[in-house]
């Protein structure tokens, strides 16, 4: 028997309804902020991703040649594709552009809890606004989206200018080594590396920066930082909006990519693999032949959010089972159409069961049964039965629809 590829999943109806419910909440928050959805191809030229991340990323990707010999790749992330689309299609559009997307990505890596070879991201890109309020808007939107999912999380906000200030005297190779230690919180390795370089004081400063939690303390450690006023304005906007966050100036990943403000979200119940959101300010369009436009964005790891939510179930549709005799079938079709037109999920028997068997089957999933036999057809009514309480009563069609609708989704 054929099995699904390793690192992929099948989603049954209950799972899909749960996922779509959360996805809808994210889309709705984006809509309220003015972010409109875009979509890019699932595969792109390989160079699009190696230009951003280097040739080393190829080992983590699904790469192939098409029949014309062109090197293509299934997208490992979406930001590069969105900025490529901006350069191709929208670089003269009025700024700023507020875009969002929900799509699957592919990476060839070892599958584990919350990490798959096919995974989904919900992301946002704000293109063409280079201000403190632009930085703040994206972080506020990220917080609103995570709040809407119901996930329990901690949001950490930092700015790379402070760490860059401290690392300024090191060559690029040394900076990468130091950042690797910081990213893993390997302070012993950090001390050894910088001691060998003759910079033990720098190790102490970097550890202090990672551990500090106030802006004043961070500036005291890092010294005079370009753009200090903008950092203060961004954080003041977050405070005014009521965003709950902690400062973290030890974010070391993406130092070659992000240009300023950075932020990450962590679920409180996922163990080691608990990051569910990452983002910041960046400049990428010039690599793809566009202008050097300022951008800010983030991506939510949708699958990890769903794992974090665990057993939390979305509200489900109220279901009506349409139960009928042979004499009532034509009327039952009219009745089912009326319920569906009113936005209520209605299901009819397809197995030619008897009336009792239809009711028994409906009771497994439906809250109500609408029974239509010869008597109901002649009277122009339906028999509405509450399958939970057993209560039943004859009603005209519109009254039955109103009563079922009043119960709303479960």
Could you provide a short overview of the structure?
The chain has 410 residues and is an alpha+beta fold.
Descriptive report:
The protein has 410 residues and is an alpha+beta fold. The chain has three domains: 1-152 and 268-312, Bira Bifunctional Protein, Domain 2 (BirA Bifunctional Protein, domain 2), CATH 3.30.930; 153-261, 2-Layer Sandwich (BirA Bifunctional Protein, domain 2); 319-407, Anticodon-binding domain (Rossmann fold, 3-Layer(aba) Sandwich). 41% of the residues lie in helices and 22% in strands. The chain is built from 15 helices and 16 strands. It has an eight-stranded mixed β-sheet with strand order 1-5-6-11-10-9-7-8. It has a five-stranded mixed β-sheet with strand order 13-12-14-15-16, with helices on both faces. A three-stranded antiparallel β-sheet has the order 2-4-3. α4 (132-149) runs parallel beside α10, α5 runs antiparallel to α8 (200-211) and α8 runs antiparallel to α9 (215-222).
Layout of strands and helices, then pairs:
Layout: H1 13-32, E1 36-37, E2 43-45, H2 46-53, E3 63-65, E4 71-74, H3 79-90, E5 97-106, E6 118-127, H4 132-149, E7 153-159, H5 160-167, H6 172-183, H7 187-196, H8 200-211, H9 215-222, H10 228-241, E8 246-247, E9 258-267, E10 275-282, E11 295-301, H11 302-309, E12 319-324, H12 329-341, E13 345-348, H13 355-362, E14 368-372, H14 374-379, E15 382-386, E16 392-395, H15 397-407
Parallel strand pairs: 1-5, 7-8, 12-13, 12-14
Antiparallel strand pairs: 2-4, 3-4, 5-6, 6-11, 7-9, 9-10, 10-11, 14-15, 15-16
